[in-house]
Each structure stands twice: as C-alpha cells, then as structure tokens.
Design goal:
The chain has about 700 residues and is of the alpha+beta class. Helix content is about 15%, strand content about 40%. The protein has a nine-stranded mixed sheet, sandwiched between helices. Strands 23, 24, 26, 27, 29, 30 and 31 form a seven-stranded antiparallel sheet that branches. A five-stranded antiparallel sheet has the order 2-13-14-18-17. α1 packs antiparallel against α9 (about 285-305), α2 packs across α4 (about 135-155) and α4 (about 135-155) packs across α9 (about 285-305). It is elongated.
C-alpha cells in the first residue's frame, strides 16, 4: 500500500442499508464464511510475516521479509503457489522480469455458466521496509490472506463466473506486478467483470469496525454492492465509501485499462502507526477485525460470482387520511429467475406494534408486483417490506435490505422497514381565485413581511377543526424562485380583528423559524415546527417574514380578491431584520389562497418541549420523489448547518445555515432539480455532527 496522497478523497458516509440494488442473503454463503475463523487467518498471516516457521518446498522456512529485493520474497511467492496447489486449484507463476524478478502468483477457478468472464480477487504480497526484517503483517500479508482464504473456501464450491486469485509482487515499487497482470489481460482481450483488491485489512486500533471501500465512479455499483454484502453478512464492520482516483494500490492498475475495480482498506482515520516499519507484525493487528474483513471479501466474491443480487424499485406509500386499502407496487429484477408459486415475492405488513402478516401479490406482470394492504382506521401506523427469492432457493432479498428466510422468502424482517401513518387530518382551503400575488414570498427583494387575516367563518366553512392543531400551511405557487429565505418565520395568533390597517406586532406564536426555499410550483406546504391551535371563535392571523442579504425573483402565488385582509411590505434593508424593521407597508387587494392542514396532536411528529440531546432523524419518505422531510433536534442554542451532498461528496444544497434556538425542527427538501440517485445530508451544530443517506427516485 502506498500512502502517498491518500487523503485527497472526496468522501461520503454510508449509515443505512437502503439501496435500489442489493446483495441477497444466502444460507450457503453464511455457512461458508463461518469457516473463516480467528485461528485460520492468524496462522496464515503469522507464516507470511515470519512470526512462525512454515513449510516451503518440503522444508522448514521463516519468511523474514517480503521486500522485493530480499531473498525471502521469492520464497513467499513459492509459499503462496503451494497454498493454491494444496487447495486443488490450477496455479502458476507470472514472471514479469525486471531487475529483481517480479513474480505474480495466480490461481484459477473456472465458472460453470460464464467460464470466459472473470472476477479477480487480489492483494500484493511484497512489503516494506527495505532492511533485513520486514514482517508486513498488515501491509500486506493481510490482503494476501484474504486471497488465500477465498481460494481455500471456494475451491470446491461451484460458481457461475470464473474467479482468478492473484497475489501481486512489487506493489510497493509502483504497482509493477498488477500493471503486468492487467496489461497482459487487456491485450489478450480477457473479460474481467470486476477486481476486488484487499490492502491492509487487519488493523483496527479503536475497535470501531470501520473500513473504507475505495472506488472510482465507473466501479461505484460494485463498490456499493460490496458494502451491501458487508451489511448483510458481516454487520460488525462499518463501511465507508470513498471516491479516490490516485494510484495508491493495485486496483488502480485495472482502472488504467478501463476495468472495474475497488479496494477495501482499514479506516484511514485510524491508520496503522506501524506502517512500513519492522513493527508491522502479528502482535499489532486486530485478529477479529481481520477475520471479519476476510469474511466480507469471501461473501461479496461468492455473491458476485453467482449473481446473488436483486434490484428493487418502489415508491413508498405516503402518510395521509387514507382509510381504504392501499396498493404497494414494486418492480424486481434479477439475473437469476425469481421464484413463483408459493415462494413468489411477498409483502409483509404490520399494524402499529403487531406482528408482520404476509401478503401474496394481487397483480403480477413480468417483473412488476402489486400488493393490496387492507384499509386501516385513522391513527394507525402501517409498516411493511418486500421479499423475493430466486427459483433455486439459493438466496433471498428483502427491501429494505437485511431480512432473511427462504421458502417462503423474507420470514425474518429487516431492521428497517417502510411505514406510513393513516393520519386523522383535515384540509381547510380558503380562496379559489387566479389573481397573482407577490406576497408572501417577495424574494425579488432582500426582506419581506406579510400579514394575512382569515375569518372564523371562512375557516369553519372550509372544514377547520378546533379539536386538531394546524400543522402545515400551504400556498398555490405560480412560479418558484430558487432564493432561500433566511430568518424565515411563520407566526400565528387568534385575533378579533376583521381588517388590517398595519402590521400587528404583538400576540404572536412563532411556529416556524429557520430557512425556507419555495420547493416548486403548485400547492407547497410549510410544516410548522410548533403546531398552533385555532380556538374556533376568533379569526386567524398569519404573518410570514424573512431577512435576506440577497435577492432573485418573486415566487408569486394564486390569490383571491379580498380587500383589507392582507398587509405587506418588502425592501432591501442594509441592516436589521425584515421581521422587525419593516413597519410601514400597504394594504393589498388580493389575499393569497391558503390551505391549512389540521392534525391530531398524537400524529404530530414535532415536540414543543426542549430536546435533551442532539438528533438527526432519517428523512421520510425514503426513497422519495421529489420532496422529503428531514427532522433534527438541538438541546441548546447553536449555529446550525444542514447540507445535502451527492454521491461524490459535492455539496448540492444548503438547507439550514443560521443560529437556531433549542427545539425540534422539520425541513422540507425539494429535489425536483436533482437527478435520481443516492444523496447524503449532514448536520453540524456545535460539536455535534451526523450524516444520513437518502434515495431520490424519479
């Protein structure tokens, strides 16, 4: 492993197991990887690193160094060759010449269905430093052990694709061995599906199980599938995916010839302090972490070489006042035939905290399956997941990932499931006019303030409910500006006023305080972080204001003629807050059309109490299209940033960037201008940092 330039990564973090494509659970793979034990990996790494004597060519020998210029290095190559041969595999040297005699060691396992398509599992066996003693237990006897253990376990196991097991020489000099191997394959026209490179997988100083999966963009799907395999089979590991284009290990040689490849390595933020020293020995590795890394390698390789994978496409069912039956549709694709009959795909659902109930498809057409979830009463929470297995009953996938059980599929649920609430909500929509109003989103200016008055009779006539709280306020947007409104506040109060002759400065309840960007056209709703009770007797007064230092265009909304019910002002204040410094204003002829959503208190996700700890919740729905909600909590006043990143680690949205008071907050994220894919949202509040993953499906 070359550590040069190792920290120029764009980085992203994976915290959840939801994925469009996922590696399935196979009882056979689970049994195979359990043959990898602490004792089995420890013995081989001790022999390769000179911690104990081994037998090479029928005689005892201690491999004191694997440095390319040391006489022990060719003996290490012989040790690896004899290991391959002892497993019954066809094995050979690849002699690449060079001043020190570069020797790769290669073994081959033919595939049954696709013998001319290859998965490569590799690691380099040479090490550092250059003196007479170079144990290299972690760098990179550990990766070589992954290759050898994979060869041992899979030597008698049938695979659809062929597998090449390779131990490369002279990686430390400049990837010499892997370059020779890849160039040879390229000029022969070999079809390498993907290469799995393992380099330094045995050190975990803080015992947190973190490891890095390093990839480039073309190889990202296999890197994600490798992470899926880790989460399915070796949950003790905590993988992080990193995009890195530097040539720091043998996977990069494959990229130069446009082959797909990725690398697994230990956590670079907990890097082996004995790297390239005489102390990189067996006593300084974490054997349990090492064993788990080797298990992950074999689980993924076996799944790859047998296409134990399914892709799911499903739009989660939204919450709402839906008491009738709901139809959940999923599209499932796999290169293995999906089972039918009694083992056909299923949906499992449960009511509140009950047990999961299986459902068979109510409709099937090729890869599309529909399931009818029975209607439920208001106030119910319904949780559900999908499950499918291949027709040969070799593996099962659930969506979300993590479930198990075969014949029928998915009897053991995943830890994370989809859910929706049958909400007892009431819509009270007032105004049907088609006039255009620049209020309340007057973002052609830097600061704006709008008061809007709605009478009790209007609210009652529209269905307003005094037994419920107002939790959302919606406006029908004609065109949307991309201008975020900072210091954005929504205030409500019950009032005896019947007309407006100026701004009202007292009596307000602040129900939203943060940053808001109009998400798009049509009805767009602002979720109140503090719900508000209309008393049913008085009129309702709403104020919306913001404080910006920049401007773009208005976000006009549809409005209805109703004089003396709207008062507004906008300006470019050089200092001060539009919510307090705009005090003049004028009466407006048209009042914005509004929809008030009333909700039962028990269904309100936000809590008006002060949180006792920081939290960043999983967005919902997830996956989503194109709007989702992100909730977070801060126990004390902090400057808060909440940003969204794409899969390359590039910032694509800033949702919050301001000082926040203690409380619970809900942010609406509209991704209508983004393409489908995986995104990450990251919060910083003081010393609190948290990252979560979300999936956009269009």
């Amino acid at each position: 492993m070359k550590r040069t330039l190792i920290f120029i990564y764009f980085f992203i973090f994976l915290f959840t197991s939801l994925s469009l494509g996922q590696i399935g659970f196979s009882p056979k793979i689970d049994s195979l990887i359990n043959l990898i034990t602490n004792q089995s990996v420890a013995l081989v790494v001790r022999q390769l690193s000179g911690d104990t004597v081994t037998i090479i060519g029928g005689s005892p020998y201690t491999i004191v160094s694997r440095h390319y210029a040391n006489a022990s290095n060719p003996k290490a190559a012989q040790y690896i060759l004899e290991k391959f041969q002892s497993f019954g595999l066809t094995a050979r040297y690849q002699n690449n010449g060079g001043s020190y005699g570069n020797i790769n060691v290669i073994a081959y396992k033919p595939g049954i269905k696709f013998p001319n398509q290859y998965f490569v599992i590799c690691g380099h066996y040479d090490d550092m430093p250059s003196g007479s003693t170079a144990p290299g237990a972690d760098d990179n006897a550990s990766g070589t052990v992954a290759v050898l253990e994979a060869a041992r376990i899979l030597s008698t196991f049938n695979l659809d694709y062929s597998v090449i097991f390779v131990a490369f020489d002279e990686e430390e000099r400049g990837l010499y061995g892997s370059k020779a191997f890849v160039d040879t394959a390229y000029f022969k026209g070999d079809s390498i599906v993907c290469a799995l490179n393992f380099d330094m997988i045995a050190y975990d100083g803080n015992n947190d199980g973190k490891c890095w999966v390093v990839t480039n963009n073309p190889s990202d799907e296999y890197a994600s599938d490798f992470i899926s395999a880790i989460l399915t089979y070796v949950s003790q590991l905590q993988p992080e995916k990193h995009i890195d284009l530097t040539a720091n290990s043998d996977h990069a040689s494959f990229w130069t010839r446009n082959y797909l490849a990725f690398m697994m390595i230990e956590d670079e933020n907990d890097f082996n302090p004995y790297y390239h020293t005489v102390n990189d020995n067996f006593s300084n590795i974490n054997v349990t972490f090492f064993r788990n890394s080797v298990r992950a390698a074999i689980a993924a390789l076996t799944a790859f070489a047998n296409n134990y994978k399914m892709n799911f496409v499903h739009t989660p069912l939204p919450s709402g006042p839906y008491t009738s039956a709901r139809t959940a549709t999923v599209v499932i694709n796999s290169k293995n035939k999906i089972a039918g009959g009694s083992n056909a795909p299923r949906l499992y659902y449960k009511i509140n905290n009950g047990s999961f109930i299986p459902l068979n498809p109510s409709y099937t057409n090729l890869d599309t399956f529909k399931f009818t979830i029975p209607g439920q009463p208001l106030g119910t929470t319904v949780s559900y997941y999908f499950a499918a297995q291949d027709s040969a009953a070799r593996f099962v996938c659930t969506y979300p990932a993590g479930g198990k059980g075969i014949n029928p599929p998915g009897t053991i649920p995943p830890s994370q499931v989809f859910s929706y609430q049958v909400l007892n909500i009431t819509y009270a929509c007032i105004g049907t006019g088609t006039a255009s109003s620049n209020y309340p989103f007057t973002t052609y200016w830097m600061d704006g303030r709008t008061d809007m008055l709605f009478t009790a009779s209007e609210i009652s006539g529209a269905g307003g409910n005094t037994s419920q709280a107002i939790t959302q306020i919606g406006f029908n947007v004609i065109s949307a500006s991309s201008q975020p409104m900072n210091g954005f506040k929504v205030k409500l109060q019950n009032t005896n006023l019947f007309s407006l002759s100026g701004f009202v400065s007292t009596g307000w309840t602040i129900c939203y305080d943060g940053t808001y960007t109009v998400p798009g056209t049509g009805w767009q709703y602002i979720t109140l972080t503090t719900p508000f009770y209309w008393d049913g007797v008085n009129n309702l007064l709403i104020e919306i204001c913001y404080n910006n230092s920049s401007y773009t265009q208005y976000s006009p909304v549809y409005a209805t003629s109703n004089p003396n019910k709207t008062w507004g002002q906008y300006s470019d204040l050089s200092s001060g807050d539009g919510c307090t410094q705009l005090t003049a204003g004028t009466v407006q002829t048209n009042r914005p059309n509004v929809c008030l959503i009333f909700n039962q208190v028990s269904n309100i996700a936000n809590n008006t109490n002060t949180p006792v700890s920081y939290a960043l919740s999983q967005n919902y729905p997830n996956p989503f299209n194109p709007i989702t909600k992100i909730e977070f909590a801060i126990p004390k006043a902090e400057f808060v940033t909440l940003k969204v990143y794409d899969i390359l680690g590039k910032e694509v949205k800033t949702l919050v960037s301001e000082f926040k008071q203690p409380g619970y907050y809900t942010i609406d994220f509209n991704a209508s201008d983004l393409s489908s894919g995986i995104y990450y949202y990251r919060i910083e509040a003081g010393t609190f940092v948290s990252v979560r993953k979300m999936i956009l499906i269009k």
